[in-house]
Amino acid sequence: MLFKLACAITTRCLFLLVALVGICRVRWVKGDNWCWLLTVLFLPLLIEMIVTLKTRQGRDYKWFSPAILLFLISIIPSMWILELHHQQTKSSDLQCKKLDSWENVRSVTFLNGTVGNLTLKSFDGLFSTLCPNDWILALHQVILILLILGKWLLPIGGGITRDELSQLLLIFVGTAADILEFTSETLSDVKGNNPQLVFIILAVWTWSMLQFPLHLAVVTSRPNTTSEVGEAPDCSGGHGNTLFVRHSTDIWNVTESLLIQDGPFLVVRVTVLMYFDIFHQMLVFFTIKNLLVVVLSLYRFVVICRDYRPPSSSIP
């Protein structure tokens, strides 16, 4: 019990720490003290932590993770501000150090110097020497890694097996890689001052991140004698052979792919190719990749529907 409570508290503290680093970066690039108002977004996560520890001993819910959702709410506004500010000022960025060699990594991190003669670099020096684009990319990477590790560390909710959790974590890894590739590749295609395209990309990125709090693509609809708050009860009316009940995992996988990830990614990339007239090999490749996933997802859904045979009603 103490271990579960420690994991629940540690995970939420890591969420708050990363969100605070994002706000510190916003304060540094904007230079305005009003940026500290973003810390108000920490309150829902703190309240959720207190309530969850008191009522559920830190355990997560079966179908939904409030802690992950509230972490996203606390960090996404900072990422929007950083991305928009970078797109407006990237042409005037001063000489900075990119994380493309071990020498540059050592020069911009806290530990600076030779072994046995290490000195701490100040936060101001860390913020100023590292390229803004690398700062933003690092935050994207840390957020996605923390979402995976956070879900792993959070105590398992009622109704979730370890097998389902392992499947969910593997799905999160693939999802995180696709989202990071989408944001880094597509935002790098923005030429000049084009806020309209940046808004579209960030909106789709925000929408795609909402699949992390959901567990619907893995957790099956097993009938339960009792249901708790945040858990979806069995709505089959006692008939466990309906199409949705028998293939709920596949249907949710198809739905997430079409509506939350590959479908929106495909729309954005086609828009970048056709409307904004941006063309290069990698953009075409990832567009085709998203198109294939969408087509295969639709094909999977059609196969499920065609192969389904409703149970014959028994005559008393």
TrEMBL record:
Species of the source? Denticeps clupeoides
Alphabetical UniProt keywords: Membrane, Transmembrane, Transmembrane helix
Would you tell me the protein name for this molecule?
Answer: Transmembrane protein 26
One matching Pfam family is Tmem26
Transmembrane segment boundaries: 34-51, 63-82, 135-154, 197-218, 278-299
